[in-house]
Specification:
homodimer, 478 residues, alpha/beta, dopa decarboxylase, N-terminal domain, Aspartate Aminotransferase, domain 2, Aspartate Aminotransferase, domain 1, 3 domains
Chain lengths: 478, 478
């Protein structure tokens, strides 16, 4: 295909929208992207550019006259790709996955093509209705209690990220409590969470205006695989109650509080019967979220949130300006998802999730999850088999927390040694892993979740880590 | 091209990611989308389905086994498209535009393909750096004061929507004020806005916990084209100060408050020298936003926000958990946009904006804006030429507010007549317009902004409105 005729040649500019230009350019972009995936292993997984690299390569103002698509592709190859960290590389094991898939990608294309803004039912009924249906499908796959289904008082909604999911339920809980106790009680309302809870909750509290001294971080018990004991939580709550404070939100065991379960990562695995047990207790929860964009083959962003009573969301988040009024909304015959989220506008995100469910089917999604968990088990066994390393916490799902055991002469509990191991592995461009700190210990995190990862990639990653460890321990001995 | 071999046939399932399946399916989707645009005028602009239509058409649980891509395309055509309101149709004149373009679409494709999560610089340096560069480009196109550029203390960032842009600056202002006056002053801090300000500010106040009684809605002056007079604002502020309250945020004339300008829609027009005057006064502002996804050929979502001092954003919105720490961030040598927004995760949205700027160039973007404004002027002239109608407010940009003048016998100020006119026009499926209420009067809104709209579409829309008016006025006379 010769792409130069309509989009580049003859001085004619690309029209804002023209179906034949779109077709021609779209085909060229599909080939570019397929070629990118074909060569994805040839790039350093973690971009190796230095801060400010791109400013040196691009002009400092927008062009007055259009560039050609060819020029743009050249720039993408030469200037953009070197600055990309390749989350879809089979050698990506950092943070949590952000998995793409063919179906998810096709859904993104179609959503971008319709380019609707689905704030109210009327602005594209299919967007709202498909979202309701698909969230019911996934709730059933997860065997969530029936209160979370749209037929009851609850229902599901797609948020951009888990941060937003947590924020909207925190706001719902805050406003429910303030309606009861009066809005000047803000200074008294208390949030409880484990010290292993994601920073998203802390940020949500900051946004919601919760007083920092009213955030109770309950220490997780390392002898219980970093779970919080119910006793520790009850104790914290009793102390606050006797001080006249108002416990109102807990992120993961219930009282008269809003109880939210954040399963952003692990939720996906619970579609497999053998992992469903990790959701035991969800029947006590007011809300539950999992990110389809992490480990469910659905492109970012797609965070699924279910609530047992949608009215609390709507009371906290609805606005009803005149210019958005319409018959269907006024008659209360439809859902307007604008009232379930922070922003007004919203993309047609249910399309990609629907396409993933349709084009893979439940059984293949289960196989996908199981394969990654098996690869993580395999990695865990490799770590255990090398006495220089240790597995720090029992593995659940596809995340292995491990470290290189420091020689006894080291005083920093292995912090520098493990940092250097991570840094040298990541600097090689061959793999990308990340870290965290548990009980003061610097711990390496290896998560299997990229859609192209196979056993050979895990083996190669392990070999690299072993080789780098040998070099580092050799240095230590000198 | 025969699409059936790898993705549909032989019982083999679609692999999570496989570059040749992606290529084949991607080409099929491009053709589907180009064909959609080719036939876009054959669909009712406003979807004519009834609430609950899709539940009747789809199964109530996800399939266990994969479906074929062919089956999916059939379902999209038969079940999804009828429920889509076609924002890209040339006959779409409702709300504000959400314009797609070939370049914007290509940017969405590439962003979906990389599928990175750009919360920190390190997770894809190109995503952060391109965003900084492109926001500087657009700031220069808008001739924003140099304090808003990244080289100064300020800088730009892409938010999902204007709602989020307004929320983050409101939070920044709130926290700046509470740091100064103590966090128990929350009950005293006051927000000022015109009664024409978008409901997004009200919702942002709700989220931020601003007391509802501390939101001062200053009445706009209809003799001044619905602008607020500085006198009215000063008076409201003086009253609050003398009552011991703390004025802290104003959405569009400054005191010692955070001054935000929301130009979500009109900002785009200000890249034309003849419209830049509407930004006069921006040098006094602390923050400014415009939506590239409305009228700037960039697909949804892409809301551009600039601030004069990024530190206030970062102080209000940063978190720094261990698992996200990395050398570049710790050395303060990079921007981590996670600290400038509500969510942690973020898409590579700068790609599409960059591609729009590159593939169209500044002059063509200016022509695009001017063309729409000319079409709106043309529509305004048509309205003026028919004595049965009136233009309600002087037209700025591409929005015409107008109404059908009610016969003197009508008691509701023309509310029902104009509602019926809108309803009959929208129910025809031929055009989609929306409404608002100004000074108690039901007003029709006609916005030109879809990328395919030409003079013939405006003429046809006007003809339809005239014909429906004739029918309605005939009925009234009976």
């Amino acid at each position: 295909m010769d792409g130069s005729t309509t989009s580049n040649g003859g001085g004619g500019w690309m029209r804002p929208m023209d179906e034949e230009q779109l077709r021609e350019c779209g085909h060229r972009m599909v080939d570019f992207i397929a070629d990118y995936y074909k060569s994805i292993e040839t790039y350093p997984v973690l971009s190796q550019v230095q801060p400010g690299y791109l400013k040196e390569l691009l002009p400092d103002s927008a062009p007055n006259q259009p560039d050609t698509l060819d020029a743009l592709f050249d720039d993408i190859r030469e200037k953009i790709v070197p600055g990309v960290t390749h989350w879809q590389s089979p050698n990506y094991f950092a943070y949590y996955p952000s998995n793409s898939s063919t179906a998810g990608f096709l859904g993104e294309m179609l959503s971008a093509a319709f380019n609707i803004v689905g704030f109210s039912w009327i602005t594209s009924p299919a967007a709202t209705e498909l979202e309701v249906i698909v969230l019911d499908w996934v709730a059933k796959m997860l065997k969530l209690p029936s209160e979370f289904l749209s037929a009851a008082l609850g229902g599901g909604v797609i948020q951009g990220t888990a941060s937003e999911a947590i924020l909207v339920v925190l706001l719902s809980a805050r406003d429910r409590t303030l309606r009861k106790h009066g809005k000047k009680s803000l200074e008294k309302i208390v949030v409880y969470a484990s010290d292993q809870t994601h920073s998203a909750l802390k940020k949500a509290c900051q946004i919601a205006g919760i007083f920092p001294e009213n955030i109770r971080i309950v220490k997780a018990d390392c002898s219980m695989n970093y779970a919080v004991t119910p006793g520790a939580v009850s104790e914290a709550i009793s102390i606050d109650l006797s001080a006249g404070l108002i416990p109102f939100f807990i992120c993961a065991t219930a009282h008269d509080m809003w109880f939210h379960i954040d399963a952003a990562y692990a939720g996906s695995a619970c579609i497999c019967p053998e992992y469903r047990k990790y959701l035991n207790g969800v029947e006590e929860a007011d809300s539950f979220n999992m990110n389809a964009h992490k480990w469910f083959l659905t492109n970012f962003d797609c965070s699924l949130l279910w609530v047992k009573d949608r009215n609390y969301l709507i009371q906290a988040l609805s606005t009803n300006p005149e210019f958005l009024k319409n018959k269907a909304s006024q008659e209360n015959s439809v859902i307007d998802f604008k009232d379930w989220q922070i922003p007004l506008g919203r993309r047609f995100r249910s399309l990609k999730l629907w396409m993933v469910l349709r084009l893979y089917g439940v059984e293949n999604l289960q196989s996908y999850i199981r394969k990654h968990i098996q690869l993580a088990q395999h990695f865990e066994q490799l770590v255990i088999s090398d006495p220089r390393f240790e597995v720090v916490t029992p593995r659940n799902f596809s995340l292995v927390c491990f470290c290189l055991v420091p020689p006894t002469c080291e005083v920093d509990n292995g912090h520098k040694l493990n940092y250097d191991l991570m840094d040298s592995a990541n600097s090689s461009g061959k793999i990308f892993i990340s870290h965290t700190v548990l009980s003061g210990k610097f711990v390496l995190r290896f998560v299997v979740g990229a859609p192209l990862t196979e056993e050979q990639h895990v083996d190669a990653a392990w070999k690299l880590l072993q080789d780098e460890a040998t070099k580092l321990l050799g240095n230590v001995v000198q």
